[in-house]
Amino acid sequence: MGFNLRMGFFRNNNIRQVTMKALFVFIASGAIWGCNPPLRVEPHGRPKRIISLSPSITETLFAIGAGDRVAGDTIFCNWPRAANYLPKAGEFSRVYFEKILWLEADLVIANRDSPSETVGDSLREYGIPTLVVGAYTVDETLDMIRRIGQAVGEEAGAERIAGDMEKRAEAIEGEVKGAKRVKTILIFGHDPLILAGPGTFADDLIKLAGGVNLAGDSRIKYPTYSIERIVLDGPEVIIEASHSAAYSSPDSAEIREFWKQWPDIPAVRAGRVLVVDADLVTRPGPRIVDGLDVIARALHPERMR
Amino acid sequence: MKSPLTTRKWIVTIATLAVILLVAVIVGVSIGSTPVSPWSWLSISDETRRMWMGRILDYRLRRVLLAGLIGGALALAGAGFQAILRNPLAEPYLLGVMGGGAFGAITALMMNLRSMSIRPFAAFIGTAVSMTLVWMVAGGRGWRTSSPRPQNLILAGVIVNAFFAGIIMFLTSILGTEKIKSFMFWVMGDLSSERSYGWLLFVSVYIAAGMLMILPLARDYNLLSLGEESAHQLGAPVERVKLLTFLGASLMTAACVSVAGLIGFVGLIVPHTVRLIAGPDHRLLLPASVLSGAIFLILCDSLSRTIFPSTEIPIGAVTAFFGGPFFLWLLGSRSGRSFVEEK
Fold first, then answer.
1. ipTM of this model?
2. With an 8 Å Cβ cutoff, is B174 touching chain A?
């Protein structure tokens, strides 16, 4: 016997002492954190084994001419075709740390929303330089492309792509300038109906294409709408940009059957329900102006040549 | 009936568990999604390659340490709750402590307070609030005046947990697709997201504080198993023991929830399994639960990392999948014996 872990310090406490101790723990932990800041690791030289943690970053790297130096990407990177066959180092919300180390990455480029804003800190702990980027508008996308170009040493390629995109976007904005703003909603998913709200990429595209996003005054970035609300709002154009197989093809029977139930919606009456490739309107990469073009044609077919 | 606790039995049990824990750590570090092991690391000649493989081993070690810390803490929290409530269902998850902690941590994340000094503290506030809520609902009057009946506490805990689960669900549904997956993962438990040594240190401070509050209570727990009145007459400071247990378990649960989300089953099955094998004396039960919880979670995490190449199963699913049937088997093989009252 005699193996009672008797520790007087933690016995015979009253409530106040215990509270003080909890406070002490909190302060002590804060002090430890203060002494242990995340390591800052900057990219050095021209990276040769780049890992992309987002489809838009993969598209950008290939477009600016760094595609042959991409050593790994995510399971959702599907464009250009070659991106499908690269080793997979992450998914939407998770990073395969072990895989990144196995691939001997000398630069990881991650999106600040997926997997997370802090992914850079975690990777730098392992001595891997990490660039965290993100964009919610066309302008921010251009900045992002130039930043990636600098980080991987392809400034010229990035400038060429970003400059082209800028010109095309300006041309499209010029075409739709002064036209009546078309009431629009963009749907990311059915069951439940998830719309593009304020601060999303699609919201910016709708505005630039001469429309007004009816869900743009929502408080939530990706609000769930009831069909009653949509009927009441009366959108003139409905854009379907779903990733699910049943709702992503232009001749989807599900979409046709769904909207047939609500013939009072102006967009349904006028046959202006349009299915677009979701990747074009959700990825802040080099194809985003293609997305803008598609939406502008849907909103103002009379103006777009 | 188990033989009474002897020094010899204590040493043998703890030493055996320590050896198994060591083996579990080695297994955890040796297997993963890439073919790297300490042996291949030692035998490689290429310097650069060795450095990268070393980093992979370092990555695995951090994760194994985190799994061990969390497993041990949750098991001890469960053992403590079961002792003071004398209820086999008592567990951080079922008592509503975990749900409250997750709510606190998610609230901090929603407010973009991602720093490691805030999230566990927010989780601790969440656990403390939910515990107080449970205590007050179960006691009917207030925090200090009442001593709720164990059955009422569990009932209140389940209800409070359901309430917080509802709030978390509501938050995830209004936050939109961007964060939903990570929140889903959050609710199912995830050991893969935060593993810097800073986090490890931070979590271990919380857990060490909780363990130092609960481990010295072993004798009092033994008295409590005779019933609160008897324990009181035999000199156990019943109310203080309860309060320290709640506080220590809340601290540990908060630390666990803030880094790894809700991992159920560990606090329930580990102490019961240890009790069935090593007997009900808390002087052995408490430390043995810590070691067994660490072993259990390290092995579950190793499985979750390797069972399917290039993807990971949420740790909560693994603990439930392997823990559930094992527990049922133990239950069946010892049927007819009560859980907690046996002495």
1. 0.75
2. yes
